[in-house]
Amino acid sequence: MNSESNDLSQVLRSASTEDRTVILTILDETLASPGSVLDLFLESFRIGQKTQQFLNHIVVVAVDNQAYQYCISIHPHCFQLTSVTSKLAKRKGSTSPDHLTLKIMRFDLFLEVVKLGYNFAFTEADVMWLRNPFEHFDNVKTITLACGSNPQGGTSTMIDKGLFFMKADEISFEFLKILRFERVLFPNYLDNSICEMVTHKLKGYSVKQLDKTYFGGFCEPSKNVSKVYTMQSTCCDNVKSKVHDLRLVLDDWINFTAQVSTNASTGTSPFTWRAPKKCVG
Q1: Domain count across the chain
Q2: CATH number of the domain where residue 54 is located
Q3: In a domain, 225, yes or no
Q4: For the Nucleotide-diphospho-sugar transferase domain, which residue ranges apply (predicted)?
Q5: What is the pLDDT of residue 95?
Q6: In terms of Cα–Cα distance, which of 197, 128, 134 is closest to 165?
Q7: 89-95-97 Cα angle (round to 5)
Q8: Domain span at residue 29?
Q9: Residue 208 falls inside a structural domain
């Protein structure tokens, strides 16, 4: 990251709020093209409640040149991780980063952002922002995150729900440094979810978990549209399926807000989501 720090610092500075907070998302070419997940992600901010204000504070981090080129054509704050692109060019026959490379790249980026003194909300690009989640973030605790559960073999493991907020303080800095150390000793450690790693390393004294009622996913959808803040296309690996079903989410949201407006409702409408058509069978 050292060779990229100046460029990153400039992008963060231009996108930052007055209290040095940015919104980060990371993607590759599969999510960044006309009609892609990135388009839907940005659209959700435009049509969400009290989310338009965040559009100018989103930093889209691209791991390849195609994603970067598309980003700069539609959004003002884009950053390319050229170090990742360079590594890929040296690997014959490789067209995309492997799983471990992406994990390492993410946490190195988070550490650099914290070192530069910026708080950040990290969001997967397939998380639709329908309401302002900052209303639920804790201004005192270091990390606020959305977690879910995934029962396997009679036990339940914690899974990420595509969204967390991290303050730039000494605790977050040390936590991210520990993760860098752990991955050297235990290469598979980063396969754990951020929810598991935070719970294990920070023991909860500086962590707030978000209420599942407000932060949904296709695996664990929140039925009450009047309470949902974000919705992620979990349980869905196929990109075309993601685009199709996230489009349904945004269309349902548009219909719901129009219905609430028409009925002068207080938000207690019986309106419900359509079930995902392609992501969850």
Answers
A1: 1
A2: 3.90.550.10
A3: yes
A4: 54-246
A5: 45
A6: 134
A7: 85
A8: 3-263
A9: yes
Tell me the pLDDT band of 98, cut-offs 50, 70 and 90. Answer: low
* Contacts of 55 by beta carbon, 8 Å cutoff, 6+ apart: 42, 45, 46
CA-closest candidate to residue 233, choices 250, 219, 222: 219
What is the spatial distance between Cα 233 and Cα 34, in angstroms, rounded to a whole number? 19
Residue 78 lies in a domain: yes
Q: Residue 30: inside a domain, yes or no? A: yes
Which of 39-48, 135-144, 149-158, 209-218 shows the lowest per-residue confidence on average (mean pLDDT)?
149-158
Distance CA 30, CA 38 (A): 10
Tokens of 102: 């992406």
Residue pair 42/74 in contact by the 8 Å Cβ criterion: yes
To the nearest 10°, report the CA torsion of 197, 203, 208, 209.
50
Which range (16-20, 63-67, 127-131, 269-273) has the least confidence?
Answer: 269-273
The pTM of this model reads 0.89
Instruction: Report pLDDT digits (tens) over 236-264.
Output: 889 999 999 999 999 999 999 988 777 65
Rounded mean pLDDT of 121-125? 97
